[in-house]
Amino acid sequence: MRKETGMTIFLVLIFLVALFTYQKRNLTFLRLTPSPNKVMVIKNIRYIDDGLEKHRLDLYLPKNKKDFSIVQFVHGGYWTSGDKDYYAAITGLYGSTGRALAAKGIGVVIQNYRLAPDVQIDGEIDDVVSAIKWTQNHIAEYGGDPTHHFLMGHSAGGHLITILGLDPEYFARAGIRSGTIRGYISLSGIVDLNDMAAKNDEQFKESIIYRVFGRDPETLMHYSPTSYIQKSMPPFLIMIGEHDFDYLIPETNAAIQKMKDVGASPKFKVIAGNTHMDMVLKFGSREDNMTQPVVDFIHQSQ
């Protein structure tokens, strides 16, 4: 019995060492956490005062600085899952993104938004727009400059901020001048919904695409950023991982080519070594290859 117990403990230790080795770059306690003297965190501000948990946002602000640029971050999760505090105790998401950028002198707004099936795509876009309005109306109270406002999103969040950047109707209806957003940063953002549907199986379509957008291919085209590409598009930084989702790499390459064909000139980067999740997990980690490209884009777009 003692021998079996000892072997069990040994195997468990081997498993834990392997897990630690595989995940060490993403564990919260191994992140390069900025000094508290550099970053101020304000949690759970209501951007719509209706009591819903999904209508809250967090601020990550550089201390001892005024009139700093603002990045508004929209999380991913295929429009059906995710949260601004998603597995924060284990991965550091998404506060690691906020802290990494705030330590570089850039304020960050990280917002929640309602998800399917509680709402479909229009409700999600409405929430993102409402949080943008809150930021533009209130961020000066916290030292930020609302005229240097950038939108950033990962995966489904990348889709949401990209369609806002390419289709001016959403901001027009909300009374937001599109020119008040200085630039858009898409991290592995989904840009062609019909392509995504074609490249995935029926279970994926039933559980995600149909729940969020319905079944009509015309509707998928309407909500695809690729439908709104034009020469006059605003500044974009589009990044994908070298080892991103199989369907997303050619989909993104096709969108970039379409942009170039109409005379647009987005900044496009393939981040070496990154998977889809690395595009957010690496912010603030010991292998951070995400923060600097974002900071460079913001400084060049001011």
From TrEMBL:
It comes from the Bacteria. GO terms for molecular function: arylformamidase activity. The keyword Hydrolase applies. Residues 57-244 form the BD-FAE-like domain. SUPFAM superfamilies: alpha/beta-Hydrolases. The lineage of its organism: Bacteria, Candidatus Sungiibacteriota. It comes from Candidatus Sungiibacteriota bacterium. InterPro entries: AB_hydrolase_fold (IPR029058), BD-FAE-like_dom (IPR049492), GDXG_lipolytic_enzyme (IPR050300). Pfam families: BD-FAE. This is Alpha/beta hydrolase. Keywords: Hydrolase.
